[in-house]
Each structure stands twice: as structure tokens, then as C-alpha cells.
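Try this one yourself first.
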């Protein structure tokens, strides 16, 4: 069972903050991927198939989509969401709503 992901979606940040958050996400994701279990990788792939079936999407877009919808947030591996919370990643409101 996955815990609900709890990110604060921030609406009015500048482009510099968005870029910093995107870089923070990719650094955290790379760290997570280097130590993720096969089971967690499979969970992430299942989330991608459920949220964006048949589509090619970046992991950043996928996690933004999931974080914007509480019912989809639970699809992400807890180890990934915990690391993102630990690193203080904050999805941008406009990005989360537009993907």
C-alpha cells in the first residue's frame, strides 16, 4: 500500500524557481533510480501505463500529473515520493495543471 503523496502546489513562482525545481526533480530522480528496487521500477512503469497509456512522457511530467491528482499520487512508489519530499521538491501549479 502506498502512502498519499503530499506536496504543496505553488501557483505563482518565477521561471527561475520552476527551472530550479525541475533540476531538483531530475537530480532526485537520478538518485532514486540508481538505488530503486525492481519492484519500485515496475510500480513506476505501471503508473505511467495507467496515467498516460500508450504515450511517451517524461518522468517529470508523469510525476507532475500524479501529484496534481490525489487518486493518482498513490500510484507512485513511496520510495520516490519520500525522496522528493525529503529534497523539498515542489511541483509548480501551472505545470501540474497543464500536463
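Now uncover the answer:
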Amino acid at each position: 500500500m502506498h502512502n498519499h503523496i503530499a506536496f504543496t502546489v505553488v501557483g505563482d513562482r518565477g521561471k527561475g524557481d520552476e527551472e530550479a525545481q525541475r533540476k531538483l526533480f531530475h537530480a532526485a530522480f537520478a538518485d532514486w533510480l540508481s538505488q530503486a528496487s525492481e519492484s519500485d521500477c515496475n510500480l513506476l512503469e505501471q503508473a505511467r501505463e495507467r496515467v498516460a497509456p500508450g504515450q511517451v512522457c517524461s518522468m517529470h511530467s508523469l510525476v507532475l500529473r500524479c501529484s496534481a491528482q490525489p487518486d493518482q499520487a498513490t500510484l507512485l512508489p513511496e520510495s520516490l515520493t519520500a525522496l522528493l519530499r525529503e529534497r523539498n521538491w515542489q511541483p509548480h501549479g501551472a505545470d501540474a495543471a497543464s500536463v
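Discussion: Helices lie at 15-35, 38-51, 59-68, 70-73, 78-86, 93-98. The chain has six helices and no strands.
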